[in-house]
Amino acid sequence: MTKDIVCSGIRPTGNLHLGNYFGALRNFVQMQEEHQCFFFIADYHSLTTHPTPGSIYQDARRVLVQFLACGIDPEKATLYFQSDLPETVELYLFLNMNAYLGELERVTSFKDKVRQNPNNVNAGLLTYPTLMAADILIHKATRVPVGKDQEQHLEMTRTYAQRFNSMYGAEVFPLPQALGSDGRLVKIPALNGSGKMGKSEGEASTIFLTDEPDVIRKKIMKAKSDSGPTVPNQQKPEEIENLFALLRAVSSADTVEHFDHLYNSCQIRYGDLKKQLAEDMVAFVEPLRQRILALEADDESLRRIIDRGKEKARESGLKTLKEVRHVIGYRN
Ligand code: TRP
Fold first, then answer.
1. Which atom of ligand 1 is nearest to the CA of 82?
2. Which end of the chain is more exposed for a tag (fewer CB within 10 A), N or C?
């Protein structure tokens, strides 16, 4: 297998939760073993919706710490802040020259944002996809691990890469493809019975990697369930299936089997299931939380990691930008 160049970013919108862990992070940790990986905190993209963020550095630092706690190894992968690689912005400018208003206006995420926030339809929001393309192309990435909601952006990245190559008659950029997870992806539901775990389902429905044991216990005991099965082997309604999905994520196979059997024989008591789930969840999250606390307290090491990430990102980014400037015809 030839080595891919993998690149992905995450916006620093809050603490990482269990959905992030099972959705992206575990996947990233695996990929750093197999490929050359660039992972960054998208702290420029934040400005498209929050132009005066106030605590942007603290927010970005917090997410970086949580990446490290989840197992991203700064020796294996390049982990950096997007704003530590300002070369991205120059590439963004070049890409914007060949990004058409019509195609940008048709982007689903843009139309959603316009609907949600009609008073802040700024040009940065419109050109979110070209900034994202710049993030990816600055490293000549070939693979981008992203969720379904980002596929349209990735498609545009290919469009811009191809357009650039043909415009300047040079094969500067590869066309990056989505990187599937080979079934490693585990969907983590929210605790309120519907939807994915994450911001939109609210804090009470979300287990954050920074949640203390008692907070986790409380959230799980309050999770939605129903009055129990009445017929043997009946199909589980969504909120019950969700509890089992969480159990499958953090409990042993025996435990899952145990409760599955109780469900199918109509003997289940959800209080017991939740108690077990809560303890297994605490056992899963607590080591991560402890690592987060330890990393947060070690400013000196963290600074070294951040500086090293910046250095590696810029080495890669500058190389690409030099070539880009050259093919356009600028002086280097
Ligand atoms: N748009 C992505 C999201 O909202 C974040 C992101 C920014 C990204 N730049 C990227 C993801 C480059 C992958 C590659 O989730």
1. 9
2. N
